[in-house]
Design brief:
Layout lengths: L2 H7 L3 E3 L13 E3 L9 E4 L12 H6 L4 E4 L10 E3 L3 H15 L4 E5 L4 H12 L5 E3 L9 H6 L8 E5 L7 H9 L3 E4 L7 H4 L2 H8 L11 E5 L17 E4 L6 E8 L5 E7 L2 E7 L6 H14 L4 H9 L9 E4 L4 E5 L5 H12 L5 E6 L8 H12 L6 E5 L3 H12 L11 E5 L2 H11 L5 E5 L7 H8 L1
Parallel strand pairs: 2-3, 3-4, 4-5, 6-8, 6-9, 7-8, 9-10, 10-11, 11-12, 16-20, 17-18, 17-20, 18-19
Antiparallel strand pairs: 1-5, 12-13, 13-14, 15-16
Helix pairs in contact: 4-9, 4-10, 11-12, 12-13
Length: 462
């Protein structure tokens, strides 16, 4: 897109006297972080909680920026700028316009749990045939998604976009930008209950992904999910389901849990069956591999390429990432947490052959049920899932209390009696951890992102 096209897309006022030639050149990139600006890139000045992007306009022009989008007239602008009422809204409108110009297939992925792993598996499968752009990091919201769309270049042949929400209407807006040709919903779990209230509310909010999908879109849903299986038709399109039961069009059996080394299974499809080795740990990854298989086949990718894509997928930091050190193994799953994902992580930890330590932090945005849901995790943890349960934060105190109460009814051998510890802060936890841990421990670290448990992973690695 040119600056002139961007101005038209966001109804901005283009100021370019003396820079007429620049406004007709295609932008190389669009960023909101001045440190990421490159020559011929466009900088969108956003006022954030900590800093105001308008303060860096002179710097980005000095670095060769093609132009700037801003909410107030910059002093001594050394290049063209587009004046808008709201910079973030302008970003979304520009990205929406740019998406309409693209002809490549776009896959949109949402769900309560497993979005990122599913995105990685789908991108890995599609990469066997296409040049793929995929969502990076946590760029799955109303800022990250449009920035990701704007990174789709002429070299890309497919895009895989993760779409995350926490309130009603948010997915509607994301769908308007992404306009997916393929929609994938992984599951409907207990996430963001503070705003969405119930699983039915979550289903309604996630289903907004269909609002702006292509008229000829493919829809792939987890058929084993009791909420998603109720979706029979959307705008004349019948969803195709994946899962573990034979009732699904894509299903898996002969599942062999190889613990931290992943899962082996046999995948059945309308085009034939094949053996799949999923290197990402956790049996739940079978669902994600099934989704990747369905998407791949819808885009004409054959079985051998799908097998290669599944086996070559790489873990993402903070998401079931196995870190093997000389004296311990860390399951780094600290990026985010919900009741379902914590259960899955504990199930993975339970497969470790060494002493198992679970370091769990608070789960956020669970609404009125937050204390009860934390207590349920405590009860689940003592059912042979770990040998040491460590809670850090306010809500995990409920988890640890419930675990202690439940432990009274669980038989334990004298040499593996479970320990339950709680710390109010990360500092207290790190002060005591060296005395708690033993050589060869397998340690799970998991919490909602805002708890900052990535700090604990770094501490354990030192």
């Amino acid at each position: 897109m040119t600056l002139r096209e961007m101005a038209a897309a966001c109804s901005g006022i283009l100021h370019a006297r003396g820079y007429e030639e620049q406004v007709e050149r295609n932008a190389g990139d669009v960023v909101i972080d001045s440190r990421e600006i490159k020559e011929d890139g466009v900088f969108i000045a956003v006022k954030g909680e900590r800093t105001d992007g308008h303060s860096y306009i002179a710097q980005v022009f000095a670095k060769g920026a093609l132009g700037v989008i801003c909410e107030r007239v910059p002093e001594n602008a050394a290049g063209p700028f587009i004046l808008v009422k709201n910079s973030l809204q302008a970003l979304k409108e520009i990205a929406e316009c740019y998406r309409r110009m693209l002809s490549i297939p776009v896959v949109g992925i949402t769900g309560s749990v497993g979005k990122t792993s599913t995105k990685e598996l789908i991108a890995s499968v599609l990469a066997q045939r296409f040049h793929v752009l995929k969502t990076a990091g946590n760029y799955n919201n109303e800022i990250g998604l449009p920035l990701t769309v704007m990174k789709i270049g002429p070299q890309h042949e497919a895009a895989v976009l993760e779409m995350g929400i926490s309130e009603f209407g948010e997915m509607h807006r994301l769908s308007k930008i992404a306009r997916p040709d393929i929609c994938v919903i992984t599951n409907i779990g207990q996430c963001h209950l503070e705003n969405l209230h119930t699983r039915d509310g979550i289903l309604k909010a996630k289903s907004e992904i269909f609002d702006y999908m292509s008229p000829t879109a493919h829809i792939f849903l987890n058929g084993d999910d009791d909420k998603l299986c109720t979706v029979q038709e959307v705008k004349g399109i019948r969803p195709v389901c994946f899962g573990l039961s034979e009732e699904n069009a894509y299903y898996a059996d002969e599942i062999e849990n190889r613990g931290l080394f992943g899962t082996h299974c046999r995948i059945h499809t309308p085009q034939g069956d094949f053996e799949a080795q999923i290197p990402l740990p956790g049996v739940h990854m079978v669902y994600n591999a099934l989704a990747a298989t369905a998407v791949g086949m819808s885009l004409g990718i054959g079985i051998e390429q799908i097998q290669a894509g599944i086996v070559s997928v790489k873990p993402v930091g903070g998401r079931s990432n196995i870190i093997r050190l000389e004296d311990r193994t860390i399951i780094d799953d600290c990026y985010n947490a919900s009741p379902a994902s914590v259960r899955g992580a504990l199930e993975l930890l339970s497969s470790a052959a060494t002493r198992r330590v679970a370091i769990l932090g608070d789960m956020f945005e669970l609404g009125a049920q937050e204390r009860q849901l934390h207590r349920e995790i405590g009860v689940y943890a003592v059912q042979g899932k770990c040998d040491v349960l460590i809670g850090v934060g306010t809500l995990t105190e409920e988890m640890c209390d419930a675990a202690r109460e439940s432990l009274k009814d669980v038989p334990h051998t004298s040499d593996r009696k479970m320990r339950i510890l709680h710390f109010d802060t990360l500092e207290e936890l790190e002060n005591e951890l060296p005395a708690v841990l033993q050589p060869e421990d397998t340690i799970l670290v998991k919490a909602s992102h805002g708890m900052g448990l990535a700090q604990v992973v770094e501490f354990l690695k030192t």
